[in-house]
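ok, trying the design again with the full structure, not the truncated one.
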């Protein structure tokens, strides 16, 4: 028993074994990231690298400016669109609200180049609208087409992140303001927007980083509008100039680092999960109906790539609109397509298993770590992937590897995907753990047991609902992400993302559409299986007074 008047003891630190394990994980992660970023980070320290960096910044400054302009315009449009759709989904109650949400998230199943494929199928040189309707004035190639494709690619991310920010607002304040007679415009201006300022800034900066490092849409629609990512690929894969590629990779890293530093520290407040459902209102006035209609229009645009790719995969030509299964037959009989599917699924499964194991181990060893910014974690997970792929290509071409080992390429790509997925999984699990009411530590203290004794009965059921969605999203990103695999064109290890981009560059849009549709169907099937196998069973409702449920 503690003596009266004696100050309370300081909280005990975790066990030494747990701290050592966390330190080992961090050391291995830092070593792997440092080794893969070596070609980019060492550019300023060698004469040839400094010359390449000066040439990129001084003589090719237009390339950097064009990349930033594209990223800023895309981020602004994507943030506005994501705020609109998330606000409508969060605030209003209307028929088809769940369908609207699914339509907005449908691009997550498709490769990132799918919006570019849809634009080319509709308004390209041989597109449906171009040849059938004569709409030849739509500027698909260049800046306008890139902005449209980038916004279509990044709008689901902006929608989800804005929903996270809206869910962290105190709903009781807005409800009380409406009950006291405040108009919707006043509630928006005085409560919602000030509370969402940090979340919207995080979404904007996250989209800037994503649009800066994206390589799929610029390869398909760039044309005469080159950006840093496509120039990096040309230098590394086409010109075999790793020094220049490292300079471009360093510039990308600096832009992403500045975006990360400018982000707010946190976009999530722990212990803010509401036990009651938020009060949603039906759209009443003309303005509300216009907002809902605009959200449906954006959702239709987001679902357009899936519809266009599915239709283009079964059409023989544009003029006759004759149905055919030739594109799927080519995929079935093509050894390259089968090998690409096998390699992509193998690497994605290995990366998901590794990153999930690391995330669960990190949360189990250090569950009390404070919650971090989800936007910053997403940026750190995805933005450096292209420079990491450049480092993987550098080590794969090293003499000791012989540049012939396909298994080495698979291992390097799996490592990049694991590095990209693990931080986001750790943050999501810790955010979920921080939202426990009461927390694991408080529950353990109330039961007079150690924290590890409440992991299985309390913590695991609380984390179980988010694990299936986390696995499905991680698997979809790992299969469809072009950045980790786009530089391995000379390896005897084809990937689905590389095959799709190669078909688009060659003008084989029908085969690319069939491959994208097959990938979406495969991911949907795997996602359903993961959800059924991993999701916890629903418990039947228990009546409070013994009456009917």
């Amino acid at each position: 028993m503690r003596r009266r008047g004696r100050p309370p003891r300081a909280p005990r630190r975790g066990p030494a074994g747990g701290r050592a394990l966390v330190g080992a994980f961090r050391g291995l992660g830092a070593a792997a990231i440092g080794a893969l970023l070596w070609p980019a980070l060492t550019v300023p320290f060698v004469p040839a690298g400094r010359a390449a960096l000066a040439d990129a910044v001084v003589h090719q400054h237009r390339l950097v400016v064009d990349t930033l302009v594209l990223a800023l315009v895309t981020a602004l449009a994507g943030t506005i669109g994501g705020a609109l759709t998330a606000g409508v989904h969060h605030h209003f109650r209307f028929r088809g609200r769940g369908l609207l949400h699914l339509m907005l998230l449908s691009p997550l199943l498709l490769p990132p180049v799918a919006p570019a494929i849809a634009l080319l199928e509709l308004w390209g040189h041989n597109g449906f609208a171009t040849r059938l309707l004569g709409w030849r004035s739509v500027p698909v190639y260049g800046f306008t087409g890139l902005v449209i494709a980038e916004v279509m690619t990044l709008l689901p991310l902006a929608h989800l992140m804005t929903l996270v920010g809206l869910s962290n607002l105190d709903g009781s304040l807005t409800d009380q303001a409406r009950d006291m007679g405040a108009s919707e415009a006043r509630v928006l201006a005085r409560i919602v927007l000030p509370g969402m300022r940090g979340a919207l800034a995080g979404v904007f900066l996250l989209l800037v980083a994503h649009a800066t490092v994206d390589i799929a849409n610029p390869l398909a629609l760039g044309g005469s509008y080159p950006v840093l990512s496509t120039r990096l690929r040309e230098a590394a894969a086409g010109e075999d100039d790793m020094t220049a590629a490292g300079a471009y990779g360093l510039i990308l890293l600096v832009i992403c680092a500045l975006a990360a530093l400018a982000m707010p520290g946190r976009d999530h407040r722990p212990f803010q999960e509401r036990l009651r459902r938020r009060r949603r209102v039906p759209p009443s006035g003309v303005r509300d109906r216009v907002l809902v209609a605009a959200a449906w229009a954006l959702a239709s645009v987001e679902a357009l790539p899936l519809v266009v790719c599915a239709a283009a995969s079964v059409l023989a030509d544009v003029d006759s609109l004759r149905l055919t299964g030739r594109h799927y037959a080519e995929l079935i009989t093509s050894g390259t397509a089968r090998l690409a599917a096998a390699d992509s699924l193998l690497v994605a499964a290995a990366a998901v298993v590794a990153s999930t194991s690391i995330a669960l181990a990190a949360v189990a060893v250090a569950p009390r770590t404070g919650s971090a910014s989800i936007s910053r974690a997403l940026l750190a997970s995805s933005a450096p992937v292209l420079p990491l792929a450049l480092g993987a290509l550098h080590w794969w071409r090293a003499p000791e590897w012989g540049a012939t080992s396909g298994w080495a390429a698979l291992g390097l790509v799996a490592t990049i995907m694991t590095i990209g997925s693990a931080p986001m999984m750790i943050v999501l699990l810790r955010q979920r753990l921080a939202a426990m009411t009461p927390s694991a530590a408080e529950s353990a203290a109330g039961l007079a047991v150690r924290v590890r004794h409440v992991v299985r009965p309390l913590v695991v059921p609380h984390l179980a609902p988010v694990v299936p969605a986390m696995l499905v999203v991680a698997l979809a990103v790992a299969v469809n992400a072009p950045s980790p695999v786009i530089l391995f064109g000379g390896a005897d290890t084809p990937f689905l993302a590389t095959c799709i981009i190669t078909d688009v560059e060659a003008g084989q849009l029908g085969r690319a559409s069939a491959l994208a549709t097959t990938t979406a169907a495969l991911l949907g099937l795997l996602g359903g299986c993961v959800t059924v196998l991993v999701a916890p069973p629903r418990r039947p409702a228990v009546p409070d007074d013994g009456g009917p449920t």
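Keeping the full-length input from now on. The first helix runs from residue 16 to 36.
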